[in-house]
Amino acid sequence: MQSSVLSGKTYFIRTFGCQMNMHDSERVSGLLDSCGCLEVAEPAEADIVIFMTCCVREAADTRLYGQCSSCKSLPAPPGGKRVIAVGGCIAQRDGAGLLTNLDNVDVIFGTASIAHVAELLEQAFVEGGHHIRCEEKDSGAATDMPWHRAENYRAWVPIMTGCNNFCSYCIVPYVRGREKSRSFEKIVDEVTGLVRIGVREITLLGQNVNSYGRDLFGTPRFAELLRAVGDTGIERIFFTSSHPKDLLPETIDAMAEVPAVMPQLHLAVQSGSSRILKLMNRRYTREQYLALIDQVRERIPDIALSTDIIVGFPGETEEDFEQTLSLAEQVGYAHAFTFIYSKRAGTPAATIEDPTPRDVILERFNRLVKVIEDGAYAYNQHDLHTVVPMLVEGTSKKDATRLLGKSPKNQTVHAPIPEGYTVDELIGKIVDVDVDRARTWYLSGTVVGSPR
Question: Where, in this chain's numbering, is [4Fe-4S] cluster 1 bound (predicted)?
Fold first, then answer.
């Protein structure tokens, strides 16, 4: 689909937030490629600058305002006109309201409107002015758009959009809409096509993958989807995110029985206090969460568990926080994303008053980080003096002579480039690493055998 207006123009995309945002950026990039545009590495080189935004935490707003404003000082592009666009969750939430703080933005498109990016950009170049499209309902057209992937061996595959959970602190249901599952056949066909072109690893994406299919079939069919995707010949399957209330026994069975499903599970707990979980509208208790962990480990004993935890939710007491610490110690996460609560206007939690001093919340946060680090270090010791298959991604940022990649448990792995090979020859290959060093956030060792 060539566009006479956009053809030959350069573009730059900066993405904030989750994997779903990153995949949306791939779709926007693919659409612009099909219009004859060319991606560049810096905003100063671009005729089109696009910010794909996240609004889960307040810091994302601040970053967007700063980076958009910095575009004002960029030199004019060769064509004389630069179009600034904002997409994603902040765009969906604020719409035209963004122009109050960002008067240099030309195009605003919401999460359900990315299929219309090209026409909005064309209008901005031809007509000038502001062009805004923030539809409430997702037509699903975005999942059929072309994509531009940075890696030819790995891909994100969206299986659903939106969320029905309405956790009291979370803005996502308001900016991503209600759950909408893609058809079973489209997902399997997409993965089959990816296998055909050499993709080895996929991540199935959704705000709550465990409820996949509920809107289509009346009951979740995520376990069935995992088995069908595993039959395509794909070598590695990850998925995110999983809500504990919807993690069914049949899904745990599929994880254990489908060889391509990697032994890693991200299961966000958010708090270890049942009282706080109720205030968060998470719809499970501490005891139910820990019982799930036991069920998963019974079927997949060495699984790597990761999570999200919020510190400082309004009304959290020291006793509540101690419950979170003890849960983290009991589970022993391989990795965790820890956050200080960020008030999001429009969510129920934003109306809850909290007298807890900021320095108390920071002190609790630091205590939690220490527990998480200790658990991650202990978990990684299980792989010391074992051979771990690593999917090579490139080289370490700190040392270009060392390979960097991921294990089946999503651990970062480092190893010297083996003699006789170049990095380019190894990217996308799987190499076995004999691990002689296990640290908190990575494994390190020596490549043994031949790449495959």
Answer: 18, 54, 89
Would you say 71 is a known binding-site residue? Answer: no
Rounded mean pLDDT of 404-424? 97
Calculate the CA 380 to chain-centre distance. Answer: 23
295 touches 249 (CB < 8 A): yes
Question: pLDDT for 375-413, tens place per residue?
Answer: 999 999 999 999 999 999 999 989 999 999 999 999 999
Give the per-residue SS3 of 228-285.
HHHCCCCCEEEEECECHHHCCHHHHHHHHHCCCECCEEEECCECCCHHHHHHCCCCCC
Domains parsed from the chain with CATH numbers: 10-133 (3.40.50.12160), 141-379 (3.80.30.20), 384-448 (2.40.50.140)
Alpha-carbon distance of 352 to 369, in angstroms, equals 25
- The answer to whether 54 is annotated as binding is yes
Task: From 219, 260, 265, 263, select the one nearest 239 (Cα to Cα).
Answer: 265
pLDDT value of position 141:
55
Residue type, 29: S
CA distance 143 to 120: 19
Task: Report whether 55 belongs to an annotated binding site.
Answer: no
**Closest by alpha carbon to 208, among 142, 161, 250?**
161
Tell me whether residue 18 is annotated as binding.
yes
Instruction: Find out whether 148 and 31 touch, Cβ atoms under 8 Å.
Output: no
Is 80 exceeded by the pLDDT of residue 329?
Answer: yes
Distance CA 58, CA 93 (A): 13
Q: Quick check: 88 and 111 in contact, CB under 8 A? A: yes
Bridge partners (DSSP) listed for residue 390 = 431
pLDDT (tens digit, 9 = 90+) per residue, 199-257?
A: 999 999 999 999 999 999 999 999 999 999 999 999 999 999 899 999 999 999 999 99
pLDDT in tens, 44-74: 999 999 999 887 776 777 888 888 889 999 9
